[in-house]
């Protein structure tokens, strides 16, 4: 296995490396850098593409599919909040915070159950803050946070039943929501 390779494929000069580059061989002659390692977290530059599986929506992608993506820069601010609060995906499964998807609470939870779990979550988060210097107490508090989030449907098994995969904590631009999200970002300009 090589750490670096240059190949020609379908008339394109491809620079392949696990790591992304700021500049690469024949960049001025329209060569393309294909890399991994960054898990979709780098701001893309022209003719540079993250080809790691998590940047492809957890599925294989052809070279043509990869090259058809628009290299865009996503601002890492909270500018996509709506007047009703956090930006929500069209299917209502996630909110978007600084470009990242976070699974929403299960909308089918009974009101009292949701209220109880939110109170448990807030209590556990306070305990995490207070237990910082006590490793055993901190571990127990973190487990309580996780249990409340699982109960709310924000972690663990998904609450929808159509078989769609979970993209919790993925960058929106690297998921099937990418086109929707990028269209929103383009509308801000």
Structural write-up:
This protein is α/β, with parallel strands linked by helices and 189 residues long. It has 2 domains: 4-68, no CATH class; 87-188, no CATH class. Helix content is 29%, strand content 15%. The protein has 4 helices and 7 strands, in the order ββββαβββααα. The chain has helices at 63-68, 111-130, 135-152, 178-188; strands at residues 4-9, 12-17, 32-35, 48-50, 87-88, 94-97, 100-103. The strands form 2 sheets. It has a 4-stranded mixed beta sheet with strand order 1-2-3-4, with no helix packed on it. It has a 3-stranded antiparallel beta sheet with strand order 5-6-7, with no helix packed on it. A hairpin with a 5-residue loop joins strand 5 and strand 6. Helix 2 (111-130) packs antiparallel against helix 3. The N and C termini lie far apart (43 Å). 18% of the residues are buried.
- Name the structural class: alpha/beta
Shape: elongated
Number of helices: 4
Q: Average pLDDT across residues?
A: 83
Radius of gyration: 21 Å
Assess the beta-strand content as a share of residues.
15-25%
Oligomer: single chain
Helix-strand string: EEEEHEEEHHH
Which keywords apply here?
single chain; 189 residues; alpha/beta; 2 domains; 4-stranded mixed sheet; 3-stranded antiparallel sheet; 4 helices; 7 strands; 29% helix; elongated
Task: Present the secondary structure layout.
Layout: E1 4-9, E2 12-17, E3 32-35, E4 48-50, H1 63-68, E5 87-88, E6 94-97, E7 100-103, H2 111-130, H3 135-152, H4 178-188
Helix pairs in contact: 2-3
């Amino acid at each position: 296995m090589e750490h670096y390779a240059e190949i020609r494929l379908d008339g394109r000069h491809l620079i392949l490396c696990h790591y992304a580059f700021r500049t690469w061989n024949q960049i001025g002659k329209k060569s393309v850098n294909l890399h991994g390692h960054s898990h979709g977290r780098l701001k893309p530059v022209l003719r540079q593409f993250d080809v790691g599986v998590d940047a492809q929506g957890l599925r294989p992608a052809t070279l043509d599919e990869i090259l058809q993506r628009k290299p865009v820069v996503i601002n890492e601010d909270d500018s996509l909040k709506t007047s009703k609060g956090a930006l929500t995906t069209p299917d209502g499964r996630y909110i978007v915070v600084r470009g990242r998807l976070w699974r929403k609470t299960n909308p089918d939870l009974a009101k009292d159950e949701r209220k109880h779990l939110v109170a448990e979550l807030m209590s556990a988060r306070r305990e995490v803050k207070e237990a910082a210097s006590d490793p055993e107490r901190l571990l127990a508090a973190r487990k309580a946070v996780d249990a409340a989030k699982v109960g709310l449907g924000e972690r663990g098994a998904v609450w929808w039943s159509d078989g769609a995969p979970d993209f919790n904590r993925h960058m929106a631009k690297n998921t099937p929501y990418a086109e929707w999200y990028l269209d929103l970002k383009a509308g801000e300009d």
